[in-house]
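Re: [ENG-882] Designed sequences occasionally contain unexpected residues at chain ends

Forwarding the minimal case from QA. C-alpha cells:
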C-alpha cells in the first residue's frame, strides 16, 4: 500500500503537467486552423 501511495504522489503532478501540455498543443492547432481559414476566406 505504501508503494502504491508513493507512485500516485509521483504520478499526479506528471499527469497534470501532461494535461496542460496537451491543452496547449490543442490551442496552437486551433489557432493555426483559424489562420488557414481566414486566409482562405480572404482569397475568395
Amino acid at each position: 500500500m505504501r508503494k502504491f501511495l508513493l507512485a500516485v504522489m509521483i504520478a499526479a503532478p506528471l499527469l497534470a503537467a501532461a494535461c496542460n501540455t496537451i491543452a496547449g498543443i490543442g490551442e496552437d492547432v486551433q489557432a493555426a486552423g483559424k489562420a488557414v481559414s481566414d486566409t482562405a476566406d480572404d482569397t475568395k
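QA comment: On inspection the terminal residues look reasonable. The chain has a mean pLDDT of 83. Proposing we downgrade this to a documentation issue.
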